[in-house]
Amino acid sequence: MDIKNVLVADAVDKACVELLKKNSINVTCKYKLSKAELIAEIPKYEGLIVRSDTKVTADVIQAANNLKVIGRAGAGVDNIDINAATAKNILVLNTPGGNALSACELTCSLITSLARNVVPAAASLKVGRWDRKLYTGHELYGKTLGILGLGRIGKEVAVRMQAWGMRTIGYDPIVPATEAKKFNVEALELEEIWPQVDYITVHTPLIPETKNLISEKVLNKCKKGVKIINVARGGIINEKDLLEALKSGQCGGAALDVFEQEPPKDTVTLELIQHQNVVATPHLGASTAEAQIRVAVEVSEQIIALTGKSEKYTSTPGIVNRSVLLNITK
After folding, report:
1. Higher-confidence residue: 205 or 150?
2. Which of the listed residues 12, 265, 266, 299 has the most CB atoms within 10 Å of its CB?
């Protein structure tokens, strides 16, 4: 594939640009482009690299007369119109494993923070209070963790939380029960999971099947006081329903790193963030130095592999729309 010019539209680690240039690919970095500016700019390039800020809509893709590949430095591709790209024979790449450990570690941190009321207790002490009894927590030992999505991140969360003595059950329509058993997760159907769990953590993409996966109906099937963690994508959990469950006590606490709107402006979301039983962080799942380097290198390596300029990079494991690759290689 002939890729001479690449536009980097979101800030990625410098390792990405350096590796592309080392392999004789011209790189232009232009961040925070408006939709109109991106549409005007995109015809100049065969490659586009984004993170989550830039929205690669059908209009942008329609204007991309020379574009051959879109690389997402991260796992989620819901900011890219996959159907429009596929229709135009444009490959979409992602780096599904690059931030897995970082997202996993944040998830585990949030689970333990919820269990021991770390955030509100720390805030209380900082203003001069000594509320030991008010912030009595719970042990994780012997509790049941429901993991929705047993891919890279879900698997790593399971292994780590088992070390705390948690029982791990989970659901994934793709991962076989025999495979889940290898990392000590009992694979169950969703309706079997809800009544058993003390904690639920979600690790799925945001697709039509997972939109509002956690809703009022689901929360009411869980134990009173169930705790919810989301370091995946906003929209998987219905924020209005979660807020009502927190108010009623049906949900005992939530730890949220992602939201339906980012940055949050909706009144429901803002109220949810302010709830006393919510720990909220600003989409930090992949925000570690290690993860940023990893995804930057992986996305550039995949683009270089497509050009055939280096024998070192021969595989493209993050191709989202493989039908395009088949069309190209026919």
Report:
1. 150
2. 299
Catalytic residues: 233, 262, 283
Residue with tokens 């290689």: 329
In 10 A of CB 108, how many CB atoms?
21
227: left (phi over 0), alpha (psi -120 to 50) or beta: beta
Query: CB 127: neighbour CB atoms within 10 A?
Result: 6
CB 295 within 8 A of CB 15: no
pLDDT for the residue 310? 66
Q: Is the peptide bond before 263 cis (omega within 30 degrees of 0)?
A: yes
Q: Output the pLDDT for position 316.
A: 58
Q: pLDDT band for 78, please (50, 70, 90 cuts).
A: confident
CA–CA gap between residue 231 and residue 101 (Å, rounded): 12
For 22-34, the pLDDT digits (tens) are 999 999 999 999 9
Record the pTM.
0.86
One-letter-per-residue 3-state SS of the chain: CCCCEEEECCCCCHHHHHHHHHCCCEEEECCCCCHHHHHHHHHHCCEEEECCCCCECHHHHHHCCCCCEEEECCCCCCCECHHHHHHCCCEEECCCCCCHHHHHHHHHHHHHHHHHCHHHHHHHHHCCCCCCCCCCCCCCCCCEEEEECCCHHHHHHHHHHHCCCCEEEEECCCCCHHHHHHCCCEECCHHHHCCCCCEEEECCCCCCCCCCCECHHHHCCCCCCEEEEECCCCCCECHHHHHHHHHHCCEEEEEECCCCCCCCCCHHHHHHHHCCCEEECCCCCCCCHHHHHHHHHHHHHHHHHHHCCCCCCCCCCCECCHHHHHHHHC
**Each residue of 159-179: pLDDT tens digit?**
999 999 999 999 999 999 999
Instruction: Count Cβ atoms below 10 Å from residue 287 Cβ, excluding itself.
Output: 15
CA separation for the pair 273, 279 (Å, rounded): 7
